Amino acid sequence: MAPVPPILRCFMYDFKRNIVMRNFKLLVFLVSAVLYSSCVKTEDFQLPESETKEFDIEGSITGISAVKSNFDPETGEIYVFSETDTWMEAYVVSSDEGGNFYKELVLQDKPENPIAGILLLVDDNSLFETYNFGRKIYVKLDGLALWSNNGIHQLGIQNRGDVVAIPPSRIDDHIIRTMETAEIVPLQLEISEFNEIHENLFIQVENVQFNRNLLREQHHYTFAGEVTDEYDGDRQLESCSTGASTMLSTSTFSGFKSLYLPINSGSVKGILSRNFYDDYFVIAVNSPDDLNFDGERCDPEFLNCADNNSEGINILFEEDFTNITSLSALENSGWININVNGGKVFKPGTFDGNRYIRISAFNTEEIPMEAWLVSPAIDLGLNSDARLSFDIMSSYDNATILSVLITEEFTGNVLTTNWKTLDAIIPVGPTSQYGRGFVKSKINISCLKGDVRFAFRYLGAAPDKTTTYDIDNIRVSGN
Q1: Among 192, 283, 220, 209, which Cα is nearest to 428's?
Q2: What is the rounded CA–CA span in Å between residue 62 and residue 65?
Q3: What is the DSSP letter of 417?
Q4: In Å, what is the CA distance from 472 to each residue of 162, 250, 278, 405?
Q5: Helices and strands per DSSP (H, E), number in the chain
Q6: Domain membership of residue 231 as a residue range
Q7: Are residue 171 and residue 204 in the same domain, yes or no?
């Protein structure tokens, strides 16, 4: 056989090498696929721990408090980190798995007893798969920008006067995921203890319940599935211990927005934040599992007259405010209209030809604003079928802060009178617009006798509890 020329031997060698390498790559792919399928549970997703390696940080390590101190609240200017060679140590306390967080990581400085938190903007909508709850991470600060948006400190990329999310191509440059997943112990707080130092921390509030008016048979509210919910659904939580209230905020894009609110009382774990307009504190949960409502409700003791299913046909008292055009006209009609701190009171109003009485803490500086509108004395005599009814509309709603009370023993002073609380329907209105109409409340007061007075009590506080209420068509009927 003739010898193979050198140039042809080289060609044959390269050809055989390519064939072998192709087969080797195919073999590696098949083996990897088999190993991957045998390691991943089909019923319980596991994070790819193999992608995380131990490492040594090249540069300095700092904490969240030190990072936040670079922002000057006086000027409000964006601070850009440059040539610091510094990394921020933090733990992830948010999860976008339930859809209540979007392209952001909420970070705090320690797994237990944290003192500082911050929000990191990241352009990825499946962050929980890599940066799961409790995951310890390091964030490279150089190239990032710090500002305060709606009262919340945020880190991201500066872009034309804004701070935006870190783009996908730069995420790995700025975030290092460690092997550690810590057990996050929520910071125990009362609603009355909420402070800006607690923002972006994972907290727990015990012994709370949703406002009774969110759970009516006529309308049981969802987390964020109402027609009035534009971007977030804010639902009022009340403390059974202190009476203080706050809002549970749920995104209208969350996967649990259409679930009904729990009826009982219990505890809530979530991120303490601020609403979009920076008016009040809100709690945002990672999932409905962060609510544990298995306790008894702590509603006040309402007047409970036995219902005999009959209603009087005689009008004992009626007021539609048609002739009430001024404060003096209201007082001359026998109404007592006072603010216990000397501030804003109930005022006559009109819309589309209809007159009513309105109250709101908007554009005041009263903290609190406690206003009372007390009816004239109404003689029930020995009526056994007395009913009290009225219409209420709620607008620009940021808290349910109106209550209705009644007494047989009015002392002339609203603060010394022994009042009975009525289970009145106080509508929950839209948060950013005028109300959608009046809602009627009808209450059995047949167990009361003689002269009675009822009252509307408004307990607001600017700027976070300023709901506007309109009241009309008040009537007491009996036989």
Answers
A1: 220
A2: 9
A3: S
A4: 47, 33, 32, 16
A5: 4, 29
A6: 191-295
A7: no
The owner of tokens 């005999």 is 308
CATH number at residue 79: 2.40.50
Same domain, residue pair 175 and 198 = no
Q: Is residue 410 part of a domain?
A: yes
Q: What would the two tokens of residue 76 be? A: 């409000």
**Could you tell me the CA-to-CA distances from 15 to 5, 33, 279 in Å, in that order?**
16, 27, 72
Q: Which of 435, 326, 443 is nearest to 390 (CA)?
A: 443
Is there a domain that residue 16 lies in?
Answer: no
The DSSP call for residue 167 is: P
Domain-located, residue 30:
no
- Give, for all 479 residues of the chain, the pLDDT tens digit: 444 444 433 334 343 344 333 443 433 343 344 344 444 333 444 444 434 445 678 889 999 999 999 999 999 999 999 999 999 999 999 999 999 999 999 999 999 999 999 999 999 999 999 999 999 999 999 999 999 998 999 999 999 889 999 999 999 999 999 999 999 999 999 999 999 999 999 999 999 999 999 999 989 999 999 998 988 999 999 999 999 999 999 999 999 999 999 999 999 999 999 998 898 999 999 999 999 999 999 999 999 997 766 677 789 999 999 999 999 999 999 999 999 999 999 999 998 889 999 999 999 989 999 999 999 999 998 766 899 999 999 999 999 999 999 999 999 999 999 999 999 999 999 888 888 889 999 999 999 999 999 999 999 998 889 999 999 999 999 87
Q: How many CB atoms lie within 10 A of CB 6?
A: 8
Structure tokens belonging to residue 306: 């036995």
DSSP letter at 228? T
Same domain as 82, residue 143: yes
Last residue of a domain, one of 181, 202, 228: 181
Yes or no: say if 399 and 457 are a contact pair by the CB < 8 Å rule: no
Side-chain-side CA neighbours of 17 within 13 Å: the count stands at 6
Domain limit, last residue, from 162, 181, 200: 181
User: Which CATH number characterizes residue 457's domain?
Assistant: 2.60.120.200
| CB distance 348 to 330 below 8 Å | yes
Strand partners, 390: 441
In single-letter form, the type of residue at position 268 comes to V
- Shared-domain flag, residues 158 and 271: no
Answer yes or no: do 154 and 199 share one domain.
no
Residue 46 placed within a domain: no
The type of residue at 265 is S
